[in-house]
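Milestone 3.1: sequence recovery, worked example.
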């Protein structure tokens, strides 16, 4: 009957034991099984056949002369999938065979797909394990400075699109970077590796915050797709532990909170995120602030303030600041508990980062280094053409800091030289008025005037002289312009309303001595190494 129905590969076993041996050899697609057989009955053979088939469906149809309900029910209980009572109807039995054969075919296909999926899943898990290993080793924070910070990172998935890095500076201070790549997961985290390597290398060299920001921007601009960017805060804490230099591009506000719970300073985002603007469009201006010992600098990613609960209510910045104003010394762990309590059973949609630093003495980080015993002097003369096309500060800073021991002042040197040069160019040579920058519209007008006057400049010169005396350990910088001089005392007063916190008071803060002469045409400052 089976052969007439088209099933040509049929095998017969005369006993249960022979059936098991034959099944092992021929790997059957369907079994017609009697109950009463020599040595082993069908009830005993059926489960053994099923076990041999593994995960693939092997249909067993019992052929039996028994017709009581108990016997038929037991056929199904021991692993049978169907039964046919003798005498059986050939047409119905053939239909049952074909139906079960289709089910087996579906089972074979599903099993093959499961094997392919399992292979793929194992490959993905292996790749994830490799990436996690690389990330774990590449994104480690320097242990010598990590204990100065209280922080928490909570990714929304396996990989974190948020980034927090800490490195000591050659001067004895600390750099830290807190950032947030677009989205979350592996795609957003992949940019963390070049950022971490660049940040660590620049921190070791003692670059300024503005140099770090512009360098990372160039790196990411060449690396990231057009729809991806990196919001970030880059901060340098001076060796005294309380002077702060901050660049904020696209991150939520950083706040300085006094021990009494008052917000004494807010560092707002004044720039576009990194990886968006071309080099000539990028703004590297930073903010400076001299905090007090005991003041607390607090920052977080937007995953904190944009967190929503089950009712789709957003946590918001006010709630976080209210916690801190009520309990100024509230640890980050306790803040995290409050955040999680607010979220409740709602899913975490974005990566979360919370960072806290309390201003304190960093005396233990003061490095021991030797300064060159060779005196040196560098003189740069910049005429009209050079002033139009060339910014000398970076190369000048590289030349000075390449000397032994000079890396300890590289960041301050870069800041001071930039201020002195820009003052000489803007107010001495181009005769620009800083009071124009008192409003946002005036700020843009100021830089339009700067570009216009620089393009039309016909005569002018700036001379920069750097000298080091190893006996006195004094580094002297003199910047002189060919202008008519400017009212530097007025410029110093204007610093109070300068939105970017730059100016002569900053130079005085960073230098040992500051002196203006020749009616403001010459500025001389000294650093004590």
């Amino acid at each position: 009957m089976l052969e007439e129905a088209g099933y040509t590969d049929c095998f017969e076993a005369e006993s249960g034991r022979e059936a098991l041996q034959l099944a092992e050899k021929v790997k059957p697609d369907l079994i017609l099984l009697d109950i009463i057989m020599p040595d082993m009955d069908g009830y005993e053979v059926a489960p053994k056949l099923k076990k041999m088939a593994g995960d693939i469906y092997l249909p067993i149809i019992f052929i039996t002369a028994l017709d009581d309900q108990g016997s038929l029910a037991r056929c199904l209980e021991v692993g049978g999938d169907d039964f046919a009572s003798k005498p059986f109807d050939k047409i119905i039995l053939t239909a049952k065979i074909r139906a079960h054969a289709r089910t087996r075919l579906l089972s074979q296909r599903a099993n093959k797909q499961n094997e392919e999926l399992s292979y793929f899943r194992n490959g993905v898990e292996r790749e994830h394990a490799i990436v996690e290993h690389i990330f774990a080793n590449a994104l480690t924070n320097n242990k010598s400075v990590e204990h100065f910070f209280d922080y928490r990172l909570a990714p929304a998935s396996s990989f974190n699109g948020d980034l927090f890095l800490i490195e000591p500076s050659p001067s004895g201070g600390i750099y830290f970077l807190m950032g947030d790549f677009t989205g979350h997961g592996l795609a957003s985290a992949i940019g963390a590796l070049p950022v971490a390597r660049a940040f660590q290398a620049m921190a070791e060299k003692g670059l300024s915050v503005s140099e770090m920001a512009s360098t990372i921007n160039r790196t990411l601009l060449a690396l990231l797709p057009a729809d991806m960017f990196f919001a970030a805060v880059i901060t340098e804490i001076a060796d005294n532990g309380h002077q702060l230099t901050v660049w904020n591009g696209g991150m939520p506000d950083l706040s300085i909170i006094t021990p009494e719970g008052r917000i004494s300073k807010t560092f707002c985002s004044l720039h576009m995120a990194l990886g968006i603007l071309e080099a000539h469009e990028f703004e590297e201006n930073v903010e400076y602030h001299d905090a007090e010992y005991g003041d607390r600098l607090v920052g977080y990613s937007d995953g904190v303030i944009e967190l929503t609960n089950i009712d789709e209510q957003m946590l918001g910045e006010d709630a976080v600041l209210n916690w801190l104003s009520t309990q100024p010394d509230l640890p980050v762990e306790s803040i995290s508990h409050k955040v999680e309590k607010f979220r409740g059973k709602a899913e975490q949609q974005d990566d979360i980062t919370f960072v806290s630093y309390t201003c304190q003495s960093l005396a233990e980080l003061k490095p021991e280094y030797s300064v060159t015993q060779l005196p040196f002097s560098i003189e740069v003369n910049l005429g009209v053409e050079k002033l139009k096309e060339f910014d000398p500060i970076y190369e000048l800073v590289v030349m000075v800091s390449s000397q032994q021991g000079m890396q300890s002042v590289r960041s301050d040197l870069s800041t001071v030289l930039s201020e002195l040069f820009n003052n000489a160019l803007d107010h001495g040579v181009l005769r620009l008025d800083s009071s124009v920058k008192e409003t946002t519209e005036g700020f843009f007008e100021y830089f339009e005037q700067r570009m216009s006057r620089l393009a039309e400049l016909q005569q002018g010169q700036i001379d920069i002289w750097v000298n080091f005396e190893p006996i006195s350990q004094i580094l002297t910088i003199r910047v002189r312009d060919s202008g008519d001089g400017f009212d530097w005392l007025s410029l110093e007063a204007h610093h109070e309303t300068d939105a970017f916190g730059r100016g002569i008071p900053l130079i005085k803060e960073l230098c040992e001595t500051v002196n203006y002469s020749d009616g403001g045409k010459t500025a001389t400052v000294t650093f004590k190494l």
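The longest strand covers residues 174-181. Residues 120 and 126 are 10 Å apart (CA to CA).
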